[in-house]
UniProtKB/TrEMBL annotation, chain A:
This is Thiazole synthase. It comes from Paenibacillus tianjinensis. The gene is thiG. It catalyses: [ThiS sulfur-carrier protein]-C-terminal-Gly-aminoethanethioate + 2-iminoacetate + 1-deoxy-D-xylulose 5-phosphate = [ThiS sulfur-carrier protein]-C-terminal Gly-Gly + 2-[(2R,5Z)-2-carboxy-4-methylthiazol-5(2H)-ylidene]ethyl phosphate + 2 H2O + H(+). Residues 7-248 form the Thiazole synthase ThiG domain. Keywords: Cytoplasm, Schiff base, Thiamine biosynthesis, Transferase. InterPro entries: Aldolase_TIM (IPR013785), Thiazole_synthase_ThiG (IPR033983), ThiG (IPR008867). Pfam families: ThiG. Belongs to the ThiG family. The active site is at residue 96. It comes from the Bacteria. Pathway: Cofactor biosynthesis; thiamine diphosphate biosynthesis. Homotetramer. Forms heterodimers with either ThiH or ThiS. It is an enzyme of class 2 (transferase).
TrEMBL record, chain B:
It comes from Paenibacillus tianjinensis. One of its GO terms (molecular function) is 2-iminoacetate synthase activity. This is 2-iminoacetate synthase ThiH. It is an enzyme of class 4 (lyase). PANTHER family: 2-IMINOACETATE SYNTHASE. Its cofactor is [4Fe-4S] cluster. Residues 70-305 form the Radical SAM core domain. InterPro entries: Aldolase_TIM, BATS_dom, rSAM, rSAM_sf, ThiH, ThiH/NoCL/HydG-like. Keywords: 4Fe-4S, Iron, Iron-sulfur, Lyase, Metal-binding, S-adenosyl-L-methionine. The keyword Iron-sulfur applies. It comes from the Bacteria. NCBIfam families: thiH. Pfam families: BATS (PF06968), Radical_SAM (PF04055). Its EC number is 4.1.99.19.
């Protein structure tokens, strides 16, 4: 089944994006890449240390498409500066904008994210904004030149699943851009559900990094994302609120 | 509005009876809650929680791994100057002690920075005694400008400053502030701080808030445990952190739980904080403030630090010297005796053995031109 997902001009066969944080050792990263089949990996520029042997970049397989993120940015200006630093450091021109001005819940600041999207898209970045699911904000991000929209399923790192399901549905249906559900997905079944709903991809980190067996969990997510996508493409049967009568009461009228 | 109003309110609570009113059931209720309130925090610090430490530890570890992952951020302190005009009864830098005082000049600073950076550190905490004459803000600023060439994050632990001074330091490249109230109990505070500007309780209490207002990325607070009843001190510390977190959500608020250590003088605190008590405090901090960073210093012995890494701690110091120029010179006076004297590699090995990843770099001060 050929079902390429083209993002930023790159055709992807995997719709599972993964992260690099929270692992007990960096050597797990290439193993998780292999188990997950993922082709896109996000990395926090704040952790990149070119002077160190333990630089996280040394553990990311070369075939991966890098998605540097602006973790730590509290304003659009900071996000823009981090993105420029990432590009200057040779991490490519993709960027996941993360602007979080609330350290308690780590919820993204949509208005600052829109501003950063405008600036960075104009500078030729492939911009993937992480956001709180909100239709008008998503449309503004699209107008600003975002390559995809990355709404959260639940607060970051919470493993609470698709708490924002209704809002995600609206974005999937109304925004003519890939929707990549990012944050909150804790179980493979939730990743599958996001894909069944029509999300173009999912991004997750905590669920794999904090699992007892991260490699097996990466494999589980790989299969779940693939299944969910197939179910979406196959067209799910309509869900009936009540049983369909096999002997309709008005059958005599035919 | 300042945290001082909260201090005045909390001081009115009848602690003699308050701690006794909690049961294990109150502790378990707190353990099941998503967001803990003041009453839950008291339960976790109460004698009743002593029998629930294992349950608290399990939950604390779960929360820490979920929010921070299997990583431990490492940093090291650097003492710039030990001149001090204060007389505090628990500190070697106190003005009453007669020893040759030092402060690092630019060359010495570079030597010290090179040695520390070569051991892998990217996050540095710089400290001074309190002397506006010998180590004024301008001196700290000049040092920071040099240190930024070697480190990706520089925090300060100096005497309380004004918002303007904090802003000045931020512009020079400081991104974090550490400032311990030492003692929240006002009467004890006055007893311990005999002479000098540090005697002014309120100026110190409000300084972390001034740091938040100035816009520091991270602000770290704590009480020096052992100076007064530890339950009350930990309670005030956690309430202070919650106050700052609620009022300044953009700032990363962190806590430390330093225990009193031997120093140059003879002072012995009234209150003994046992290992069990320290564990209870750290767990209470984690449960009450799930996302706050918790720092563990080398005041604690190696054997205990090796266990505490699983109980809510997110940052550790390593390869520590508490004297000015201590990484390149000899003959200085330590501010206090450290307990875990392992070198950086030994700490790295310990963390790896504990299935934790040592992280030396977790932020980079943004040095590119503003947008």
């Amino acid at each position: 089944m050929s079902d390429p997902f083209v993002l930023g001009g790159i055709p992807l066969t995997s719709r599972l994006f993964i992260g690099t944080g929270k692992y007990s050792r960096n050597t797990l990263i290439p193993e998780v890449v292999a188990s997950s089949g993922s082709q896109v990996i996000t990395v926090a520029l704040r952790r990149v240390d070119p002077q160190s042997q333990e630089n996280i970049m040394n553990y990311i397989p070369s075939q991966m498409t890098l998605l540097p993120n602006t973790s730590g940015a509290r304003t659009a200006e900071e996000a823009v500066r981090i993105a420029r630093l990432a590009r200057a450091a040779g991490l490519g021109n993709w960027v996941k904008i993360e602007v979080i001005s609330d350290q308690k819940y780590l919820l993204p600041d949509n208005s600052e994210t829109i501003r950063a999207t405008e600036i960075l898209a104009a500078e030729g970045f492939v911009v993937l904004p992480y956001m709180s699911p909100d239709l008008s904000a998503a449309l503004r991000m699209k107008a600003a030149g975002a390559a995809a929209i990355m709404p959260l399923g639940a607060p970051i790192g919470s493993n609470r699943g698709l708490q924002t399901k209704e809002l995600l549905r609206i974005l999937i249906s109304e925004v003519d851009l890939p929707i990549i559900v990012d944050a909150g997905i804790g179980r493979p079944s939730e990743a599958a559900e996001a894909m069944e709903m029509g999300a173009s991809a999912v991004l997750l980190n905590t669920a794999i990094a904090t699992a007892r067996d991260p490699l097996l969990m990466a494999e589980a997510f790989r299969e779940a994302v693939s299944s969910g996508r197939k179910a979406y493409l196959a067209g799910l049967g309509p869900v009936e609120e009540a049983a369909v009568h096999s002997s309709p009461l008005t059958g005599f009228l035919n | 509005m300042s945290f001082y109003e909260t201090v005045l309110r909390l001081e009115q609570l009848p602690y003699e009876t308050l701690w006794k009113q909690f049961t294990a059931e109150d502790v378990n209720r707190a353990l099941r809650k998503e967001r803990l309130d003041e009453h839950d925090l008291q339960a976790l610090l109460s004698p009743a929680a002593a029998s629930c430490l294992e349950e608290m530890a399990q939950r604390a570890q779960q929360l820490t791994r979920k929010h921070f992952g299997h990583v431990m951020q490492l940093f090291t302190p650097m003492y710039l100057a030990d001149f001090c005009v204060n007389h505090c009864t628990y500190c070697s830098f106190s003005s009453i002690y007669d020893f040759p005082r030092k402060k690092l000049g630019p060359e010495e600073l570079r030597q010290e920075a090179s040695v520390i950076a070569a051991s892998g550190f990217r996050h540095l905490l710089v400290l001074t005694g309190e002397s506006r004459k010998e180590s004024p803000t301008a001196y700290v600023k000049d040092c920071v400008k040099i240190l930024r060439e070697y480190f990706s994050s520089v925090s300060i632990e100096v005497n309380p400053l004004s918002i303007e001074e904090y802003r000045e330091l931020m512009e020079a490249g400081v991104d974090g502030l550490t400032l311990y109230q030492e003692v929240y109990h006002q009467e004890t505070y006055r007893k311990l701080h005999i002479k000098g500007p540090k005697r002014v309780y309120r100026n110190r209490l409000d300084a972390p808030e001034r740091g938040c207002q100035a816009g520091f990325r991270a602000v770290n607070i704590g009480a020096l445990l052992g100076m007064y009843d530890w339950r009350q001190e930990a309670f005030f510390t956690a309430m202070h952190a919650r106050y700052l977190q609620d009022k300044y959500p953009e700032c990363e608020i962190g806590l430390s739980a330093p225990r009193f250590r031997p120093y140059l003088g003879e002072f012995n605190p009234d209150s003994d904080v046992t290992d069990r008590a320290l564990v209870q405090i750290i767990l209470a901090y984690r449960l009450f403030l799930p996302r706050a960073g918790i720092t563990l210093s080398t005041r604690e012995p190696a054997s205990l630090r090796d266990r505490l890494v699983h109980l809510g701690i997110t940052k550790m110091s390593a390869g520590v010297s508490t004297e000015v120029g201590g990484h390149t010179q000899t003959g200085g006076t330590p501010q206090f005796e450290i307990s875990d004297s392992r070198n950086v590699q030994e700490i790295i090995d310990m963390l790896i053995a504990n299935n934790l990843q040592p992280v030396f770099k977790d932020w980079d001060i943004l040095t590119v031109a503003p947008v």
